[in-house]
Amino acid sequence: MRFSTLIFKNILRRKTRSAFTVLGISIGIATIIALGAVMNGMTVSMEGMLKSGKADFSVAQSGISDLSFSRVSENRTNEILELDGVKNTAAALIGFYSVGDNPYVITWGVEKEDFPMLSINIINGSAFSQEHELLIGAVASKEWNKTVGDKLVLKELEFNITGIFESGSIYQDKGVILSLKKLQEIQNQEGYVTIIYVELEEEANIEEVCQRVEEEFPDLVTIKSVAELGKVDKGLELMDAATLAISFLAVIIGGIGVTNTIMMSVYERTREMGVLRAIGWTKKRILIMILGESILLCLFSVLIGSLLGFLGTELLMLQPIIGGLLEPLYTVDTFVRAFVVAFAVGLIGGMYPAYRASKLSPSEALRYE
């Protein structure tokens, strides 16, 4: 019998115990996969919001914990435009409102003259011309089964849908766009916007322009990339910390479970270990066999946990409160992290039982009852 086959059969000899161990670790792996996919989706969504269209960077209020709290004077749009190196600016007010079963539909208030800069492409119908008209994203149009000419109720106000747009960002294409002035009126924020997008001249240095903006306007902060999201949104940092914490807990809890399972297996197979030593097996070979059983259990957990994580995330997306805000993004990094966690669990959980088994003397093991 091949060595690898023996390791596999040793696990199957105790199916129930092995199954419960795999299930326990799989739940931890599934949580890592689900949190990772959701966090990746949130990051991409936020990146689409912070770097819309042709914008090289965006500007928001400094010292805030969430972008939705940002309040920037609309006058700053023209003031930033006058700075050297700035080619164009566009302001947007952002809100979240209930539409049908979805309680958090992202709502953009922008001027239609800024559509080209923001890469808002109308694929059906036309732009709004009156205050009670709006555009809906292509994704929202399909999900809500609404099109040009239909009505849409937003904060108890009825709007006519004049067009359907695409922006290239799912986060935006799941929402609606209406006149900046109208949304300011709805939110009682006349003269204020949430964010200002800045497009630079080709020869301009982005670092120098951002530094100039923050020096000229101390109440503002610039965001150039997704790595700087923490300046205006602490939620992603908290989710990343939560994922790391869960990974750490999965290693500890899973390691304890694996240690218990493998240790019990070693005790039950003490005489077997003695026979293997008596026929010439080395301590190293015994150690590798036990460690192999531990790691193989955890690799099974990666496969099952990944499937559970995917299914769980997709079920989570069926909830309007979550599915309306983002799309999960499964990356290689997420699955690599799950694999590393599982391998660490197998290595840590199997280390002591493997060491204990390798130290058994043949004579003592054969006398063991």
Walk me through the structure.
The protein has 369 residues and is α+β, with helices and mostly antiparallel strands. The chain has 2 domains: 3-45 and 236-367, no CATH class; 52-224, no CATH class. Helices cover 53% and strands 19% of the residues. The strands form 2 sheets. Strands 1, 3, 4, 5, 6, 7, 8, 9, 11 and 12 form a 10-stranded mixed beta sheet that branches. The protein has a two-stranded antiparallel ribbon with strand order 2-10. A hairpin with a 2-residue loop joins strand 7 and strand 8 (157-166). The longest helix is centred in the N-terminal third of the chain and has 36 residues, at 15-50. The protein starts with a helix and ends with a helix.
How are the SSEs placed, and which strands pair?
Blueprint: H1 3-12, H2 15-50, E1 57-61, E2 72-73, H3 76-81, E3 86-99, E4 102-110, E5 121-125, E6 133-137, H4 138-144, E7 151-154, E8 157-166, H5 170-173, E9 176-179, H6 180-186, E10 192-193, E11 195-200, H7 206-216, E12 220-223, H8 235-268, H9 270-278, H10 283-317, H11 320-323, H12 332-358, H13 362-367
Helix pairs in contact: 1-10, 2-8, 2-10, 2-12, 8-10, 8-12, 10-12
